[in-house]
Design goal:
548 residues, Jelly Rolls, FAD/NAD(P)-binding domain, seven-stranded mixed sheet, globular, binds flavin-adenine dinucleotide
Length: 548
């Protein structure tokens, strides 16, 4: 039954190859035979190979309910597997032979060749993988549970990390879930030992760090080679796009990302001004698609992999990663973007993750059901957050320092806000204090015209004010402006560090061969489309650099 429903709802997840396509596959594959009940791919293992069913049937099995459940069956000429084949992650579904089965096993390098040389077949493979990605997201098939308090900043960090890495999990909230105590008892964990991450009965991690979690879930991808043509730091829209262009144009390309692909855009509930998507699309979906595209062309994307510092060896950039490893490259693209500044309120940072948030995704919105929330900021990101949160919260107070919403926000968005009944716009207003014990309970706001203050009882404030560039890891020699954004092109021509005769390229920094793109760059537009454009342009300059 589940099988039939899934086939109807996600037809693109089960496309069949035609005979010609099957012959192409056959040429690049090993034929393997399995007996009834034999496991072809086991859940939780990383299998780098790709499979196509030649004959017989294969059950796809998941274990979220603690026992095996067949969710669909793959037939002859259909593909086995999901997006983990390209990302190198472990799949959480098993594939088990139903009766005698023959499958074509394709090694990763041959799969890439097939995708490159047979675009139609490549498209079928990618469409199937995207379809299956949607199934996993929509149906929430997962044995993974995060159990903790909604007021714990570590529980927030863990959920944020899993969400950004698109790992599906079930959230068990100690305050809001009546089964929470029973779940803890079943796995033998005391409430004071939460947050915990539990995978069925197989393993339990008590308050794991992001890296430990990533390792356990097969999400950690580490750099494989020592020297690359192009190293990109940051996997937001700019870095990911550069990876697509770099890898597709034959450059050995690596992306180093400290959290998860997507960057700021990945936290946007709906991007409505990205060309080609008239209905808008979520930042998460955009990021997932560009990531898949970059991996299709063979770019390595290493996460979580924070870059600590940069040095130069014989003129070549050497990138130092958090765990003391290094990556060397002929060219470097800095695409580390920016993040929102904290409110300048004494002690405000103690509520980070337990009342103060810098993104409004479905995860944060769950916590706002039927309550009053504050959104601080007057630009598009604040506007989007207000509209999105208004769907769940009983009321949203949009706090802006200026006197007119239209000054910093696109007209389509300000109009929508004005038309949303449960959003109140508080102009000329600032947050002056925050209070609470273990989590935020109230904030004080001040009307700057009258000087009057008032207290608002709320457990959530969303902050979207002025951006701070991620440039603190850069050495002297990469010039920045007075706000820390990286200077490029004509503005570094007179830098003491620009020591060669030719003029710097438009996106080149004061160090030849080091480029910057997207929000981290001084005078950039701070938009998804412009970050994408700059990521693509940067690769053209990399080619120019190699010619010189
Ligand atoms: C909530 C929200 C909504 C938005 N909505 C829109 C919209 O509707 N339309 C629009 O055009 N724009 C929108 N924007 C702006 C848009 O998202 C940004 O302009 C765009 O994401 C910039 O892309 P980027 O690649 O330059 O940087 P970012 O998206 O900031 O990505 C930078 C990446 O670098 C990583 N990084 C940083 N430092 C390091 C380090 N030391 N080591 C490794 N990795 C590092 C970060 O983790 C991050 O993933 C929105 C922004 C936000 C926050």
């Amino acid at each position: 039954m589940a099988d039939q429903n899934l086939r109807e709802r996600f037809p693109e997840a089960n496309l069949k190859l035609d005979d010609n396509q099957l012959r192409v596959v056959e040429k690049r594959a090993n034929l393997k035979a399995y007996r009834d009940g034999e496991t072809i791919i086991a859940a939780g293992t990383r299998d780098p190979n790709f499979y196509v069913v030649k004959s017989g049937e294969v059950d796809v099995v998941e274990y979220s309910a603690g026992r095996p459940q067949i969710i669909w069956t793959s037939y002859a000429k259909e593909l086995l597997g999901d997006v983990s084949f390209l990302s190198g992650r472990a799949s959480n579904l098993s594939r088990v032979a139903k009766g005698p089965v023959e499958v074509f096993e394709i090694l990763p390098e041959n799969l890439r060749r097939i995708i490159d040389e047979e675009p139609k077949l490549g498209n079928i493979i990618l469409a199937t993988l995207i379809g299956r990605m949607q199934i996993m997201r929509d149906l929430n098939f997962t044995p993974l549970r995060v159990i903790g308090s909604r007021f714990s900043s570590d529980a927030f960090r863990i959920r944020d990390f899993l969400t950004k890495n698109r790992v599906v999990f079930t959230w068990v909230d100690l305050e809001g879930d009546s089964n929470a105590a029973q779940v803890l008892q079943q796995i033998g964990v005391a409430e004071e030992d939460t947050p915990v991450v539990a995978c069925g009965k197989d393993w339990i991690l008590r308050n794991p760090g992001n890296k430990e979690l990533a390792e356990r879930l097969g999400v950690l991808t580490t750099p494989k080679e020592d020297i690359y043509d192009l190293a990109i730091v940051g996997a937001g829209p700019a870095g990911l796009t550069a990876a697509v262009y770099g890898a597709s144009e034959g450059l050995r390309t690596i992306v180093l990302e400290r959290t998860a692909p997507g960057g700021q855009a990945g936290t946007s509930s709906r991007i409505e001004n990205y060309p080609g998507f008239p209905m808008g699309l979520s930042g998460e979906e955009l990021a997932a698609r560009i990531t898949l595209q970059a991996q299709k062309f063979g770019a390595q994307i290493s996460t979580p992999c924070g870059v600590r510092s940069l040095s130069f060896d014989d003129g070549y950039p050497v990138i130092h990663i958090d765990d003391d490893r290094r990556v060397s490259s002929k060219c470097l693209l800095i695409a580390t973007g920016a993040s929102y500044r904290r409110l300048n309120i004494e002690g405000g940072e103690r509520f980070d993750g337990v009342g103060v948030y810098y993104a409004a995704t479905p995860m944060e919105s769950q916590m706002c059901a039927d309550s009053t929330v504050l959104v601080v900021g007057g630009a598009n990101s604040a506007g989007q957050a207000a509209v999105f949160l208004a769907e769940r919260a009983s009321s949203v107070l949009l706090v802006i320092r200026g006197d007119d919403l239209n000054k910093g926000m696109s007209r389509y968005l300000s109009r929508r806000i004005e038309q949303t009944k449960n959003i109140d716009i508080l102009t000329n207003t600032e947050v002056t204090q925050m209070a609470g014990n273990t989590h935020l309970e109230s904030v004080e706001i001040r009307d700057n015209r009258s000087g009057k203050t008032r207290l608002v009882n709320t457990s959530a404030v969303f902050v979207f004010i002025g951006a701070k560039p991620h440039t603190d890891w850069l050495p002297e020699g990469v010039d920045t402006d007075e706000k820390g954004f990286i200077k490029t092109g004509p503005s570094v021509r007179d830098s003491p560090f620009w020591t060669i005769r030719r003029q710097p390229f438009f996106l080149e920094t004061s160090r030849p061969g080091v480029f910057a793109a997207g929000d981290v760059r001084s005078s950039s537009m701070k938009r998804v489309a412009s970050a994408v454009g700059e990521g693509a342009m940067a690769v053209a300059f990399v080619h120019e650099y190699f010619k010189n």
